[in-house]
User: Fold Adenine phosphoribosyltransferase from Psophia crepitans.
Amino acid sequence: DISPLLKDPAAFRTLIDLLEDHLRASFPKIDFIAGLDSRGFLIGPPLAQRLGIGFVLIRKKGKLPGPTESVSYALEYGTAELEIQSDAVEPGQKVVIVDDLLATGGTMCAACELLKRLQAEVLECLVIIELKLLRGSEKLQSVPFYSLLQYD
Assistant:
């Protein structure tokens, strides 16, 4: 739960500082931050602003206007779909995907698939909290993954 971070402006600023420092040290060029619906929308825009780059939405099906790419993925309790606007990124652009939490990895894998369909280069999947016991990062395979906090 990231609610305490969001309530405390100094803690939230520190969070964005840490993520910014990590990305600046890891990648010389990033074109976009892509945020996952919905908590990635809280982290991604201030991070993108700090880096001087754009922010792209990856949303639940039916929420984005215009032509979209869609992917279905498995949840613990069924299936869901994510979408991205078809013109959100150009082929070859470098993208970092952000969210608050990585659990089983289904949503993050679906986001990677959407960006690959648009021929973007996913540089990294970045989260605040990783629940290691659920082994979601193993599903990401060849995509680099980074989390600030890990819990077993």
Summary: The chain has a mean pLDDT of 96.
